Amino acid sequence: MASKPITADTFDTAITSSKPVLVDFWASWCGPCRAMGPVIEQISDEMSSKLDVYKCNVDEEPALAQRFNIVSIPTLILFKDGKPAQQMVGAMPKSALSSELEAAL
Fold first, then answer.
1. Catalytic positions, please?
2. How far apart are the C-alpha atoms of 31 and 29, rounded to whole Å?
3. Is the Cβ–Cβ distance between 86 and 100 less than 8 Å?
4. What's the number of domains the chain is made of?
5. Among 17, 39, 48, 94, which one is most buried in terms of CB atoms within 10 A?
6. What's the confidence (pLDDT) of residue 3?
7. Residue 55: inside a domain
8. Does a structural domain hold residue 15?
9. What pLDDT is recorded for position 1?
10. CA distances (Å), 47 to each of 65, 88, 99, 101, in order?
11. Can you give the CATH number for the domain in which 28 is found?
12. pLDDT band at 2, cuts 50/70/90?
């Protein structure tokens, strides 16, 4: 299951899923964000039974970026029960991201 785009209109409903939700705040012009794209897709596929994955383009959704004080991208926020549970900033190898997520789940 590939990651899905998220917007201000769908955000609050999406993060209150029965599963934890990972939101990738990114932009198309951001090199580290582009590098993380395939990693996010792999995580989305491999961990689909444990969490839902969404991508939030900060250029298209500046209000969401502001709401969560996103000052550096990529920023990944893991939501549990609709609340931020963990935040990770910057590009990282898939193994590091998987470990962070497994520990938080």
1. 30, 33
2. 6
3. yes
4. 1
5. 39
6. 84
7. yes
8. yes
9. 54
10. 25, 17, 12, 9
11. 3.40.30.10
12. confident
Placement of tokens 């794209």 in the chain? 37
Residue from 80, 75, 77 nearest 105 by CA? 80
Contact present, 104 and 85 (Cβ < 8 Å) = yes
pLDDT digits (tens, 9 = 90+) for 4-22: 999 999 999 999 988 999 9
Amino acid at 9: D
Does residue 105 lie in a domain region?
Answer: no
Residue positions counted in the chain: 105
Under a CB-based contact definition with an 8 Å cutoff, are residues 77 and 15 in contact? no
Strands (E), the chain: 4-5, 21-26, 52-57, 75-80, 83-89
Q: What is the pLDDT of residues 28-84, one digit of tens each?
A: 999 999 999 999 999 999 999 999 999 999 999 999 999 999 999 999 999 999 999
Query: What is the residue range of 55's domain?
Result: 4-100
**pTM score above 0.85:** yes
10 falls within a domain? yes
Q: Among all chains, which residue has been given the structure tokens 């491999």?
A: 46
